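ok trying again, last paste got cut off:
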Amino acid sequence: MAIWKNPHLVTALLVAPVLAILAYFAIDALVGEKAHPAVAGKSYELIARPNCRRPGGTCQLANADFELTFEVVRSSTTLAELRVATSHPLRQLAIAVADPTTARPRPVLFASETSTDTSWKGALPQPLPNGAKLQLAVLADNQSEFFAEFSPAFIAAR
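nice, full thing came through this time. structure:
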């Protein structure tokens, strides 16, 4: 095993993985996509965080600095009351339950709870059909539109 006694080889085996990791992050910083502020009149997709896929009573959707947090306030056999906290003021917030058997879902408009339009409240019918998805449409104060389609699994906990 004379190969392991060569100091140049041992140094190269130790330094190469460190350089590879540094290069990975350097390339990402140089050419990676940067988040831009929302432009008025354009549409942006909100990404559902992992807590939306599990029962727990909360769900977060985000895109750069724009974030919505859904919280189940009360749930019964016929209605699930939701409160939505937003990072930016909104003009309108609507959610539709997209059922695989229904062609056109009917949206439910949420009402603002505060004068700053950062807290909204609404109710969704229960129980939701198997395979249903929630479709969200949001109009921000700066005329930007945000949309998302996500799982209603977080409602099941309450």
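cool. Residues 57 and 154 are 5 Å apart (CA to CA). The first helix runs from residue 7 to 31.
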